[in-house]
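Write out this protein's structure.
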Amino acid sequence: MTAIAKSGTPSISTPAPDVEHSVSGLYAGEALSAGDACYIKTSDGKVYKSTGAAANAAAVVDGFVPSDTPIGEACSLYYGVRWRYGAALSPGSFAYLSGTTSGGLDTATSTGGTVPIGRVIDATRIDLFRSY
């Protein structure tokens, strides 16, 4: 496995997502960083970093947070959009939910991250989407 490292602050490289590719009106249940893969926890309705460490509810990816968000602050999740994410990425490769870094991406599957959640477009951009 090779972690897909963020290069700088990830940002959306396509126009702002429409309502079909975003969820707003959410609140961060923990501190989130731009580009983190996230899920909405059913017990409190807040957003947390997804993790592929186990095949459980935290392994679901509902979207990606567009900016750094402190705990308790409002946030949105985007999916099905292209992000400027890394550097020296391998075009055509898939991205999976990391089993070692919460909210992170990897080049290989993890226990809970068995489906691709992204496709590398070029050396710096990835199309990122939900896990379902």
